[in-house]
Design the sequence.
């Protein structure tokens, strides 16, 4: 259950950062990059590493070379959030 709490906090921090940057060129670019990540594996697109992997809790990283369940959960949540925000003028 601890893993779920960590993921929840990771997502909260990332979504709040995206919301805070929503009207900046960096924020819009990050959302666009995340949308391009839909259908890809976590870590497959180097341009997303800063948005997705930056400052992620070390215990969530895979130890096998394949994305962990935690990495998948955060990645899918972030890409779906970006898709949800497409064309939206407010978050």
Sequence:
């Amino acid at each position: 259950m601890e893993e779920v709490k960590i993921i929840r906090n990771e997502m909260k921090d990332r979504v709040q950062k995206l919301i805070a940057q929503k009207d900046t060129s960096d924020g819009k670019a990050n959302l666009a990059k995340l949308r391009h990540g839909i259908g890809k594996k976590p870590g497959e697109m180097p341009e997303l590493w800063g948005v997705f992997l930056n400052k992620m809790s070390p215990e969530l990283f895979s130890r096998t070379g394949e994305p962990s369940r935690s990495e998948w959960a955060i990645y899918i949540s972030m890409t779906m959030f970006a898709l949800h925000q497409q064309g939206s003028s407010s978050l």
Q: What stands out?
A: The two ends are 29 Å apart (CA to CA). The helical segments are 2-20, 25-36, 49-52, 69-85. DSSP finds four helices and no strands in the chain.
